Amino acid sequence: MIEIKYRKFIEKDNEAIIELWKKCNLIVPWNDPHKDIMRKLKIKDDLFIIGEKSKKIIASAMAGYDGHRGYIYYLAVLPEYQKKGVGSEILEIVENKLLKIGCPKINLFVRNSNVKVKNFYKINYYKLQDSQVYGKRLIEDN
After folding, report:
1. CA-CA-CA-CA torsion for 2, 88, 54, 71, nearest 10 degrees?
2. Do residues 74 and 90 lie in contact, with contact meaning Cβ atoms separated by under 8 Å?
3. CA 20 to 30 Å from 101, out of 45, 52, 68, 92?
4. In the chain, where are the structural domains located?
5. What is the pTM of this model?
């Protein structure tokens, strides 16, 4: 396994994280990543984890917990480090942080177009749920 240092996100990571998300095709026109980060930092910033190799950010995971379910967003690993255990490692770190605060179950969202990540979650024991997601935007990002 690759030697990775995991730590909490700090504000100076902002641009490097957004660049990571772009390289992993996680940025969509209707979500401003700067605003997503700003909103996250207002809530529970210790659930925003960064993975570094030689001081270069190569992975991220942003999680939340509402008292009922945990959620994981922006789980990203630079393409050249994918399929090397980094994604599973950062996922396990986030799962343990959520478990430590009493989270009984994690839900996550995968866009239908993101086919390759579906197998990653299956390998990590996530199961497709018999439900649909409905959304309503309350604040426009653009």
Report:
1. -170
2. no
3. 52
4. 5-123
5. 0.92
